[in-house]
Amino acid sequence: MKLYKRTLSDxxxxxxxxxxxxxxIYESIxxxxxxxxxxxxAYVNQNEExxxxxxxxxxxxDTYLKGLPIAIKDNMSxxxxxxxxxxxxxxxxxPPFNATVVNKIKEAGGIITGKTNMDEFAMGSSTENSAFNPxxxxxxxxxxxxxxxxGSAAAVAAGMVPVALGSDTGGSIRQPASFCGVVGLKxxxxxxSRYGLVAFASSLDxxxxxxRNVDDIAVMMNVIAGxxxxxxxxVDRSYPDFTEYLKNDVEGLKIGIPNQYFEMDIxxxxxxxxxxxxxxxxxxxxxxxxxDVTGAEYALAAYYIIATAEASxxxxxxxxxxxxxxxxxxxxxxxxxxxxxxxGFGEEVKxxxxxxxxxxxxxxxxDYYLKAQKVRTLIKNDFDELFEEYDLIVSPTTPTTAFEIGxxxxxxxxxxxxxxTVPVNIAGIPAISVPCGFDKKGLPIGIQLMGPHFKEEKLIxxxxxxxxxxxxxxxxxxxxxxx
Length: 483
Ligand code: GLN
Known about the structure:
By secondary structure, this protein is of the alpha/beta class. It has one domain (3-294, 379-470): Amidase signature (AS) enzymes, CATH 3.90.1300. It has helices spanning 8-16, 22-40, 100-107, 150-157, 174-180, 214-224, 259-262, 268-283, 296-314, 333-344, 347-360, 365-389, 411-416, 422-427, 456-470; strands spanning 43-46, 69-73, 111-116, 163-167, 183-186, 207-211, 254-258, 287-291, 392-396, 431-438, 444-450. The longest helix has 25 residues, at 365-389.
């Protein structure tokens, strides 16, 4: 098997057993990137800081990640490496510090290959909102990779990197993972430091890994989970070795299937594929029951009120004064603010700022923002109650497979793609998307497993079992071109 096709865990083991040279791994990956990146366009910026040809595995011998490559979504700060959030506002912005997750990866002996494309400021579900260019789904030339972590998902699916970090505010790790046929985990709110993550909606944002199998998700969680005194929302607790939970065992696991989710507007093929995976889990010894989730139909509305409200406040800092774009030729300070924001933000970001400002305004605060917060509490309570009885709740990750580039012009239609992912962020719980099949067009389908707060290991064990039971052995798109 070509080295670029191998998973992080495989490569780690090969290096540990001295069966491969780091240089050969990077040669294979560089070849692949040269070959497919012109078509996929997953990266905003590749890291040229490291001379890949001089890499020596001996320098990384005692590290956990052994010098292996990891891509980072372009909303996580990287010292000396541009961090643009795929926005004109931050084009050319070079942070003076690393995000905690970036430091953790480096300390564990990982090498940052570059920054991946995204919807501007992580607002979107297709990566079409990138101010630079859309990313293309490796499974179909005219298909979106999902978003907002579309570049991370596409890079992993295309074999350009074994794992990548993404961020998930309302589904931005899981939805692109599902569209690109890879695994994506959104950890519990508070399990992974967000220090250095450019804020979108602070009460929902979370960083997590995307990879080609569950083993690699466990490895990455071992690296990034943990407390951080620089992020006050991080919870001070200990985490297990997540790789200990890579066992094929779902015996006695109690799984709830929410009636309401399956009554919504979903592609039949997606529904069938997810239900088939559930049946397989049942055959393997899990107990499956239908459950009711109240408020599921209000989650999307509540999310788009809370997320825009927080975004309007977080994005107030882009005023042309401290960093990022500054409009030239403005007559006075106030014009400079206005012009900078007019030129620097794209259409969707402006829409969110306006919506958020509106729902927070004096006359509407109670009707919208306050009500959304109450719905949030109801949704959270509902999940808490369900998890008293069930280990996991299972649903499709997305109502459809990857749609076409340019297909969804109406913002509300785009927002509807997040219907199954946003309740998880609202409740702050962890969830993982795992590939469970393909539709007739050959596009991947993902199943979402949701678990109680800080029970990532349960998700990892169930997802690993499902991966083994379904044994999809995904043949990632070849994409080879002449270079
Ligand atoms: N698609 C959702 C949105 O546009 C979620 C984005 C995210 O998780 N960053 O808000």
